[in-house]
Amino acid sequence: MRKINGVKKKEKPIYKRSSVFRRYFGFTAAIVLGCMVVLGFIMIVFVSIQQWNEKTETLVSNARNIVQIAREYDSSDKKQDKHTAEILSNALNTMSVATKSDYFITDTNGDVMFCENSVNGDCETHKKMKIGKEYMTSALDKGFSNYVNDSTFGMGMFVVSVPITVTSANGGLNTVGAVFAVEDAIEGLLPYILGILLVFTITSIVLLGISSMAIYQLCKGIAIPLDEMEELTKHFAKGEFDHRANENYKRGYFSAFAKALNKMADELAVNEEAQKSFIANVSHELKTPMTTIGGFIDGIIDGTIPENQQRRYLQTVSSEVKRLARIVVSMLNLSKIEAGEVALSPVEYDISKQIFDTLLSFERRIEEKHINISGFEDMTPVTAYADKDLVQQVIYNLFDNAVKFTPENGTITVFCENFGKKTRVTIRNTGAGVSNEEISRIFERFYKVDKSRSFDVKGVGLGLYIVKTIINMHDGDITASSVEGMYTQFSFTIPTKE
Question: With the C-alpha atoms ordered 351, 352, 353, 358, is the resulting torsion angle positive or negative?
Answer without folding.
Answer: positive
